[in-house]
Amino acid sequence: MFAAISRCAGFAGADLSGVRAAIVAGAHVPAALVLEYADRGMLLQQSWGMTETAPAATYLPAGRTRDKAGSAGVEMPHTRIRLVDPATREDLGPGSAGTPGEILVKGPNVTQGYWNDPAANLAAFTDDGWLRTGDLAERDAEGFLTIVGRRTAMINSGGENIYPAEVERALAGLPGVREVAVVGVPHPEWGETVAVVLECPDGATRPSRTSAPTRPGRSPATSSRRGPSACRSCPARRPASSTCGRCAHRRCSARPGQQSIRPRRARGRDRRSRSGCARRARRMPAPPSGSSA
Fold first, then answer.
1. Is 153 helix (H, G, I), strand (E, B) or coil?
2. Who's near 219: CB < 8 A, 6+ residues apart?
3. Is 203 helix (H, G, I), strand (E, B) or coil?
4. What is the pLDDT of residues 200-232, one digit of tens each?
């Protein structure tokens, strides 16, 4: 919402002095957007929470808006938060600053459980009452949290865990990028790879792959893996249940004869697969007359 407001025609000359602070939540907030509003004298204070935490569990103090731009802040009073390894569920200790972990939360603001749903309660709560949120975050040396994505949205590319929000933060500050969304798509070699959807203003120069910053600690090979491209007619944005035969996106609506820019090797494999299915279908005996399907 705040990103859309910043693009309105009258935003540059609008008087924002009457707004002392605004709380933003519900999705990752790019640091560039926070700083854009801060330059106008309006502080966007990010919070994190969910319905089960009624609703806020963290909050970024107004005085830290600039130097902690993009952070969801620290725990609310009487609320406790732990980060655990998503695979082993072991606690990430004080020396794990910058390591992504799943957020577990506990406090008087946290629900006691789901009504008449013991299976959901067993999956969502630990034996000692901590709520497993499914959200992933990093904690810095000062204890401030930065949300990096959902556990279910994590992309596994050749055994490397990639967090969409982390990639989005790296790309959001590039010139010519208005909004960015990152999703995982199938890859014949790596299992999954990163697909980036950019919204750029009319006339803007599309950022090149070499202009994207790389997070310290990530190898250039990991950050530059290139997956199959999408059909030009494919509007798909998120994985679904079926894969287009001409591109890496799922549920592509491209019709036969439309142009694809998928690599030649992958297209050839799909053609062989489809022709093989057709040959097997031709060899199947016809059902006897009078039989039901």
1. helix
2. none
3. coil
4. 887 777 666 655 555 544 433 334 344 443 433
**CB atoms inside a 10 Å sphere around CB 164:** 23
93, two tokens: 């200790």
Residue with tokens 């059909």: 231
d(CA 154, CA 127): 26
DSSP secondary structure, 50-72, as one string: -GGGSSEEEE--GGGTTTTTT--
Q: What is the dihedral of CA 206, 207, 210, 211, to 10 degrees?
A: 160
**Helical packing angle, 164-172 and 31-39, nearest 10°:** 40
| Separation between Cα atoms, residue 155 and residue 148, nearest integer Å | 12
For position 52, what pLDDT does the model report? 95
Q: Count CB-CB contacts under 10 A for residue 120.
A: 12
Say how far apart CA 99 and CA 92 lie, in whole Å. 8
